[in-house]
Write a structure and sequence with these properties.
Blueprint (H helix, E strand, L loop, with lengths): L14 H5 L21 H9 L8 H8 L13 H13 L2 H5 L1 H35 L9 H9 L1 H34 L13 H26 L1 H29 L7 E5 L2 E2 L11 E4 L2 E4 L1 H6 L11 H5 L2 E5 L54 H8 L19 H30 L2 H4 L12 H5 L4 H33 L18 H17 L2 H29 L13 H18 L1 H21 L8 H16 L13 E5 L12 H10 L4 E5 L10 H15 L1
Parallel strand pairs: 6-7
Antiparallel strand pairs: 1-2, 1-5, 3-4
Helix pairs in contact: 4-14, 6-13, 6-14, 6-19, 6-20, 7-8, 7-19, 8-9, 8-17, 8-18, 8-19, 8-21, 9-18, 10-14, 10-17, 13-19, 13-20, 17-18, 19-20, 19-21, 19-22, 20-21
Family: Belongs to the SLC12A transporter family. K/Cl co-transporter subfamily.
Keywords: Cell membrane, Chloride, Glycoprotein, Ion transport, Membrane, Phosphoprotein, Potassium, Potassium transport, Symport, Transmembrane, Transmembrane helix, Transport
GO biological process, one term: chemical synaptic transmission
């Protein structure tokens, strides 16, 4: 009653007093470790303001340049800011906005669901294995490379690390190509340098991609070189773009239930027409009792007169207009359930629409139909889609920045994969239920006045998605160009691949200048390919190979029961890792068997090169542990009794005499023993050096090397 709080005492039961304070200030915290001394919304907003999607070590490099900064703060990031949001931002990206509708239209809702489920299951199983490895100790800069090299040895680590580096670099190229596609197709088509001539639309677009892509990659490389802090400042903007775009899609779906947007499609018979060349969807119009032909008539006929000679198919079929987005209540889902694969250059047609076939001789070239630009089939779509589920390593790459990495990495990564899997799977069903099939198969939205197909569904405006996806792909490209050089630098500094050691050097503060230059050059190769659909399967291979070896590393360590294998994450099992590894391998060959073989050949060459040069690093890896286990098992299986005559092998003990320089006095003795056993048995060589071992340590080592050399 005197205003002084009662002293807490171990002898007094203070449960009654504390009960009221248990939930004080905790009602707005998203994760327990997000709460500091004042765990309110202001704390979360403050951390969001400092949000970064850059890998560990990048911010510290920039801090070295900042003379005002006296000390580097300890790791403070929690699960939400440190793992969940970066993973979310890395996983959701260009494929969702530019290709998912087209995949749904081409493969149908059911097959698209299978594609997405397979890819998401693959990343979820990999995340479980990765969580086990990441919680078995601190993972410094290098992330997945560090995990694999310390678990499977320098040969596997170097091979898979370089493959993961190539995957991240090609991902940068894919994001840049996505950025240019959004810019030239949906934001400013007039900015194209190469104009369409004589129906060569695809070639002109590819050349525009190459020119703009080269300019953007130079610009991005300069930004990364000048300072990563500028990328860091924009990280929250890029994240907000992704989240707002997703919300706009869901809001648009809800709106279609009672007020579908007005995006009419023009059909000639059952063929979809591109609305870039005309505005009125009719053959002729009536005004003042006079019949006039429309611009559409003039596209199919040789003059504007009613008695003009017209295309055969145009004369025989009617022009009709239907709604492109009939809405979620329209029942269009049943039409979109099944696949509609097609050849390159075929016309996008609406099923169950009346049509009269014209003569086959009529040319399709200059007519305003919507054509498919590539041949489509199930396995190709898997290769194009898979990059949209990569990005699960974003949390483990920054374990040193986390307050409690052992808890945050598994929780944040698995939650992020669950969230994105739900978004992808629900979007497939919602796209199929809301949008007409011909619009879904129209990759560049030509039938809806050149609008982005996802944008037509979004609320309040298609521009929300266009601008949001533009900035998010820009940000993802910058982050790839920031992360890939650091991965190469980590591999180079380990010294296991001699020819890339130059890329371990950089600016005085550790910025990987040479690695950035190489990354930009490799990225340019992807830009010169110029097609997002061709680049996506390439990086799918490299990521799948990396994920396959993460699963293998976890399975090997678990089966060997190595003494240092004690992950804090307990919800893993070697069968899950083995299943994940098998699924990764299967997906590699499903996507593209020849790309899979090329990726394996590259990894195999690097592996043999490291083995040939003699990997001097000893990390107590699982492959060496596997060899020791096999040797132990074999020795224990040897019978106690005398071996059978067929299994007998000579076992010779040779005592060598060494001179004062520790050289073998009678080397011919070893030649004689090798002839006796004919390469089949076992030779044990020994020698005696007089003196105290500690004093003769160097002589002992030299003698051992000499004996080994003579035996070889």
């Amino acid at each position: 009653g005197d205003g002084i709080a009662r002293e807490s005492s171990p002898f007094i039961n203070s449960a009654e007093l504390d009960r009221g304070n248990i939930y004080e200030g905790k009602n707005m915290a998203l994760f327990e470790e997000e709460m500091d001394s004042n765990p309110m919304v202001s704390s979360l907003l403050n951390k969001l303001a400092n949000y970064t999607n850059l890998t560990q070590g990048v911010v510290e490099h920039e801090a070295d340049e900042d003379s005002k900064r006296k000390e580097v703060k300890g790791p403070q990031m929690g699960t939400f800011i440190g793992v969940y949001l970066p993973c979310l931002q890395n996983i959701l990206g260009v494929i969702l906005f530019l290709r998912l509708t087209w995949i749904v239209g081409t493969a149908g809702v059911l097959e698209s669901f299978i594609i997405v489920f397979m890819c998401c299951a693959c990343t979820m199983l990999t995340a479980i294995s990765m969580s086990a490895i990441a919680t078995n100790g601190v993972v410094p800069a290098g992330g997945s490379y560090y995990m694999i090299s310390r678990s499977l040895g320098p040969e596997f680590g170097g091979a898979v690390g370089l493959c993961f580096y190539l995957g991240t670099t090609f991902a940068g190229a894919m994001y840049i190509l996505g950025t240019i596609e959004i810019l030239l197709t949906y934001i400013s088509p007039s900015a194209a340098i190469f104009k369409v001539e004589d129906g060569e639309e695809t070639e002109a677009m590819l050349n525009n991609m190459r020119v703009y892509g080269t300019c953007i990659i130079i610009l991005m490389a300069v930004v990364v070189f000048v300072g990563v802090k500028y990328v860091n400042k924009l990280a929250l903007v890029f994240l907000a773009c992704v989240i707002l775009s997703i919300i706009a899609i869901y809001a648009g779906v809800i709106k279609t239930a009672f007020d579908p947007p007005d995006f009419p499609i023009c059909l000639l018979g059952n063929r979809t027409l591109s609305k870039r060349s005309f505005d009125v969807c009719a053959k002729f119009t009536e005004s003042n009792n006079e019949t006039k032909t429309t611009p559409l008539w003039r596209l199919f006929c040789d003059s504007s007169l009613l008695n003009a000679t017209c295309d055969d198919y145009f004369s025989l079929n009617n022009v009709t207009e239907i709604q492109g987005i009939p809405g979620i209540m329209s029942g269009v889902l049943t039409d979109n359930l099944w696949s509609t694969y097609s050849e390159k250059g075929s016309i996008v047609e609406k099923k169950d629409q009346p049509s009269v076939a014209g003569s086959e001789e009529s040319k399709m070239g200059g007519l305003p139909y919507v054509f498919t630009d590539i041949m489509t089939y199930f396995t190709m779509l898997v290769g194009i889609y898979f990059p949209s589920v990569t990005g699960i390593m974003a949390g483990s790459n920054r374990s040193g920045d986390l307050k409690d990495a052992q808890k945050s990495i598994p929780t944040g990564t698995i939650l992020a994969i669950s969230t994105t899997s739900f978004i992808y799977l629900s979007c497939i069903v919602l796209f199929g239920a809301c949008i007409e099939g011909v619009i879904l198969r129209d990759k560049f939205g030509e039938a809806v006045n050149g609008n982005l197909v996802v944008g037509t569904l979004a609320w309040p405006s298609p521009w929300v998605i266009v601008i949001g996806s533009f900035f998010s792909t820009c940000g993802a490209g910058l982050q790839s160009l920031t992360g890939a050089p650091r991965l190469l630098q980590a591999i180079a500094r380990d010294g296991i691949v001699p020819f890339i050691q130059i890329f371990g050097h950089g600016k005085a503060n550790g910025e990987p200048t040479w690695a950035l230059l190489l990354t930009a050059c490799i990225c340019e190769i992807g830009i010169l390919i110029a097609s997002l659909d061709s680049v996506a399967p390439i990086l799918s291979m490299f990521f799948l190979m990396c994920y396959m070896f993460v699963n293998l590393a976890c399975a090997v360590q678990t089966l060997l029961r190595t003494p240092n294998w004690r992950p804090r994450f307990k919800y893993y099992h070697w069968t899950l890792s083995f299943l994940g590894m098998s699924l990764c391998l299967a997906l590699m060959f499903i996507c593209s068997w020849y790309y899979a073989l090329i990726a394996m050949l590259i990894a195999g060459c690097i592996y043999k090169y490291i083995e040939y040069r003699g990997a001097e690093k000893e990390w107590g890896d699982g492959i060496r542990g596997l060899s020791l286990n096999a040797a132990r098992y074999a020795l224990l299986r040897v019978e106690d009794g005398p071996p059978h005559t067929k299994n007998w092998r000579p076992q010779l003990l040779v005592l060598l005499n060494l001179d004062n320089e520790q050289l073998v006095k009678h080397p011919r003795l070893l030649s004689f023993t090798s002839q006796l056993k004919a390469g089949k048995g076992l030779t044990i060589v020994g020698s005696v050096l007089q003196g105290i071992y500690l004093d003769k340590c160097t002589e002992t080592q030299k003698a051992e090397e000499v004996c080994k050399r003579e035996l070889a």
